Amino acid sequence: xxxxxxxxxxxxxxxxxxxxxxxxxxxxxxxxxxxxxxxxxxxxxxxxxxxxxxxxxxxxxxxxxxxxxxxxxxxxxxxxxxxxxxxxxxxxxxxxxxxxxxxxxxxxxxxxxxxxxxxxxxxxxxxxxxxxxxxxxxxxxxxxxxxxxxxxxxxxxxxxxxxxxxxxxxxxxxxxxxxxxxxxxxxxxxxxxxxxxxxxxxxxxxxxxxxxxxxxxxxxxxxxxxxxxxxxxxxxxxxxxxxxxxxxxxxxxxxxxxxxxxxxxxxxxxxxxxxxxxxxxxxxxxxxxxxxxxxxxxxxxxxxxxxxxxxxxxxxxxxxxxxxxxxxxxxxxxxxxxxxxxxxxxxxxxxxxxxxxxxxxxxxxxxxxxxxxxxxxxxxxxxxxxxxxxxxxxxxxxxxxxxxxxxxxxxxxxxxxxxxxxxxxxxxxxxxxxxxxxxxxxxxxxxxxxxxxxxxxxxxxxxxxxxxxxxxxxxxxxxxxxxxxxxxxxxxxxxxxxxxxxxxxxxxxxxxxxxxxxxxxxxxxxxxxxxxxxxx
Length: 536
Fold this sequence. Notes:
By secondary structure, this protein is an all-alpha fold. Helices cover 69% and strands 0% of the residues. The model is unreliable at 1-33 (pLDDT under 50).
């Protein structure tokens, strides 16, 4: 028969052991503790860490840098497995310096879908796997971007640490851009087309506003342009910049990809400096927005990824920001020259510049007709800059020739196709054809008549004028005009989206302008939601 151990003796042994165990004072009378709990230690460390405003931002920056490394490798896989990939996609992937680093970073990610997912055994398995991975990493980048914005909003840096936080934000953005410069994929081949104007001017002494690339089919640089029967879509300033860069491009179109990426990166870094300078002029009550505004632009994943592709919208934004900065510093004439240069780079800057000129005229409050004429001097200066830029290229050509060549520009051709496809589909749809005769024929004819691009260009003009009229009460009460410019540009983007003509890189100026608008919360949410939606 078994016997139980004596319970009283066991209890005595336990009590003796507890008495003999050393104790650590906790500062409380009559209590005994063996040390701080792990949760308490974590809270103490986090309090110390969070007390440094730039520490969390720097940590998120390191994580984002690693994510951009993954994004670059996955973007190459995505592009090369894309069913519509062409020779330039493979050539860019094979020639980009540092591509091995991006490939090594994603070597652990499977190249095809796991067996348990739909489509695992199909021909699109590699493309779908790259697409899912790219979307997941991009979503992670936007999540960390949102976390950084929220952290800076909830933990504003004191004045003594604001400069350090600004350097952390700008430095991280510079690292992101330097890394993405060598991404071995090109979601857009615009950088190859940017060299066209300089090549026509330098090598063939031809006018890029009236001569199309297909006029010289044996030229290797012009052959890389995917718009062979289109004239240049950009302004004279971009043509001159392309001319200056033509010696760096040479006869190698792949070199143009890297050259124009570097130009876009330099412009983006200049934008960060200009935005920081403009935010530094905000009143003291808006001091907390300075770091948030800079972070909103400098770390935006869409901006960084599109800059890495080399889009010149970032250069147009540079001239707009420079004009605003010079005006804020009291150098009004040079600021107007910079705004005119923005139009000479891309004509899409014209509505924004006109809004600035209108605001200046309203702020002057001219009385008599002489004062009103004198108040038009800034507009005359901008018009003079624009005319001086276009005159050498348009001299000797009739208005009919100028209008005809405008019809050959890629944006015009895209609008024509979009309108024809949209309204032709509507005219042939069951919704229209199902109407009783002869009503169906009349509605179909009306739908086809609405495909006129001139009509919709006028509609866009009316919409922008109505938006400007709505903004009139605000124009004379602001210093930077960035919020009003952002509203006008946002309306323009909505119009383009209606016809599926909006591209992700068109939003770069919108993000830059929103970063200077601390009070425009609805517009800020719209811009950030739109950038995340388009990039994903």
